[in-house]
Write a structure and sequence with these properties.
about 600 residues, TIM Barrel, 2 domains, eight-stranded parallel beta barrel, two-stranded antiparallel sheet, globular, transmembrane, membrane, transmembrane helix, GH
């Protein structure tokens, strides 16, 4: 419903996500809280009301501790919260209160929050504090889109626009039964305004059949009129609204633009109407529809697709792809911010009409004119059978669902793909971009969150995604542990056992020395005596005998000779030739 924009709404911790029971599982307060908050307002914040001081992540006010009943010298900065909890100085309840005070203080210190739809984005654990609104027929819309039946969606129909006969055979009653079994409660049906402009009986009959299938399966419906905002379409919009208002299971009509609201009201006075918009346009939406402030049944159809910028889609290796997936996971939980902003500041609850799917690139449109190739396509088959991609796709969907269910709800881009030639296809293999947007394929692959497990949905945004994108399915080699103790020996990894040094057995007597002479050798006497030194005989022959001092003397003499020869070479060859014409660089120690 449209209401006057609030002057200011507080941003607080969502106690359904972070509370004293879940805080022990809150594994990364740094990435979840400090990273987004310490980056706002150059890291500075003030108290409410101001106390004459400015604070930041490295300096908390004493009042933080006082408000939760802990000593002011315990909580001195942001790091103290987790440290003191780990040390047992504060309880989980205290820690949540401190995080809440931190969130509120930073939001209070932020300028123009009434114009910034992402001002309360804190990784999904914070919310704008205003009541959630919903449609009277259903608390949370969980829908799937019937893509390609009435409005061309060639990505879902094998690259071609369906003929009338193909459209009629695309869906059957069993499809709607399967939707219900999965936990869905609504079908989202895009149609063309021209259906009512030309009174196309064939298309209207098919629409009637599809609504009948939905009714029989216990499903509600949203009719989404696609048009070009032309003047001659206003009469068709009026007729479409009248048709939707009379259909027993249609809960809302989505319009091509806000300018058609008055025409729709001519056909249905109280039918909930949805106005399409995007995040950047939210801040000005309330002024655009200010003339509708007395209409309680105006809502927002939010386009939240995240595959339109270079940062969203660019990648050229499988490692880039994993990093990109991590990026999309990281921002998914902040998807609640524009939804709550629309409700709290614009007075209109939001239904996510686009943006809930597994796409992390725009490869779906690769064959279309104007496509920019950054290398982002062609590796989807490498993700098939990967445990890493399985885990992170599950995480992405769970995070999106947790965010989008803070508003009216969501719709998935398509239930199935039109491909009559494909037989015996393994639905669980996601090897084309289109299959990532087909809920039947995604559910078969085991990726879709359980719609009956509300607790799992709430906990999806408690912690940031796992940052294991570098290795992917590879694992690091385990760090080797310390080798076994080998008393008196060492561990030989090649042998896989301890090795020991075994000394040689002692000899019975000292080893006799050996003598080398220039003349005929004479055997040494058996009596152990020190080896003689080098001596000369009377006839001039030299006995070359080495004793224990000879090697040292020889080494010393050789080194001296080498130094002398080297000095001569350096002086007369190196210095005077190779270094000629250069200035000698002094030695420098670094």
């Amino acid at each position: 419903m449209v209401k006057a924009a609030a002057d200011r709404v507080n941003c607080v911790v969502d106690r359904h996500v972070l509370n004293e029971n879940t805080y022990p599982d809150f594994s990364n307060i740094g990435l979840a809280v400090f990273a987004p908050l310490c980056g706002k307002n150059r890291g500075a914040f003030v108290t409410n009301p101001p106390d004459g001081h400015t604070y930041g992540c490295v300096s908390f006010p004493e009042s933080f501790g006082e408000k939760v009943g802990v000593s002011s010298d315990v909580i001195v900065d942001s790091n103290s919260i987790q440290k003191k909890y780990d040390d047992g100085n504060i309880t989980a309840s205290d820690a949540v209160e401190l995080v809440d005070l931190f969130v509120q203080s930073v939001y209070f210190s932020s300028p123009l929050v009434e114009e910034d739809y992402m001002a309360c984005a804190v990784g999904g654990i914070a919310k704008l504090d205003c009541p959630k609104q919903s449609l009277s027929e259903v608390d949370t819309i969980r829908a799937v889109t019937l893509a390609g039946v009435f409005v061309p969606a060639t990505w879902a129909t094998s690259g071609s626009i369906l003929t009338s006969e193909q459209s009629e055979s695309f869906y059957s009653q069993s499809d709607f039964e399967d939707m219900k079994a999965l936990g869905l409660n609504t079908v989202h049906i895009p149609i063309s305004a021209k259906m009512f402009e030309k009174d196309s009986s064939k298309e209207l009959d098919l629409l009637e059949d599809l609504l009948g299938f939905a009714t029989d399966a216990g499903l509600l419906a949203i009719i989404d009129i696609q048009g070009e905002n032309q003047h001659h379409e206003h009469h068709a919009i009026e007729k479409a609204a009248k048709y939707a208002g009379n259909a027993k299971n249609v809960i809302a009509l989505s319009l091509p633009a806000h300018s058609f609201v008055e025409s729709a009201r001519q056909g249905a006075k109280h039918l909930p109407l949805m106005i399409p918009t995007t995040g950047p346009k939210l801040s000005s939406l309330v002024d655009t529809v200010s003339h509708l402030k007395d209409d309680p049944n105006i809502f927002v159809a939010l386009d939240w697709e995240q595959t339109s910028t270079v940062a969203d889609v660019a990648s050229s290796t499988i490692l880039d792809d994993r990093l990109k997936m991590f990026y999309h996971e990281s921002i998914a939980c902040d998807g609640r911010s524009p939804i709550e902003y629309a409700s709290c500041y614009q007075g209109m609850s939001a239904f996510v009409s686009k943006g809930f799917d597994l796409s992390i690139d725009n490869c779906l449109h690769k064959e279309e004119p104007g496509f920019f190739d950054f290398g982002q396509c062609g590796r989807l088959n490498e993700t098939a059978g990967s445990d890493w991609w399985q885990r992170h796709r599950q995480s992405l969907l769970a995070r999106q669902m947790a965010s989008f269910e803070t508003g009216l709800g969501w719709t998935y881009p398509s239930w199935k793909l039109y491909n009559p030639e494909a037989t015996d296809v393994d639905m669980s293999v996601l090897d084309t971009p289109a299959k990532l947007r087909s809920l039947k394929h995604v559910a078969a692959a085991g990726l879709f969150p359980s719609l009956g497990d509300n607790k799992a949905t709430l906990s999806a945004c408690l912690n940031p995604p796992v940052a294991d994108f570098v290795l992917g399915d590879d694992t690091m080699s385990p760090t080797p542990g310390p080798p076994p103790a080998c008393d008196g020996g060492w561990w030989d990894p090649d042998l896989g056992k301890c090795a020991y040094w075994i000394p040689p057995p002692p000899t019975a007597a000292p080893t006799p020395c050996m003598s080398f002479v220039e003349k005929e050798c004479e055997p040494c006497d058996d009596t152990p005596v020190p080896c003689p030194t080098i001596s000369s005989s009377d006839d001039g022959d030299r006995d070359l005998v080495m004793n224990s001092h000879s090697p040292m003397q020889a080494a010393f003499g050789g080194s001296v000779a080498t130094m002398i020869i080297g000095a001569v070479i350096f002086k007369f060859v190196y210095r005077h030739n190779k270094g000629h014409g250069y200035t000698q660089v002094p030695d420098i120690i670094v």
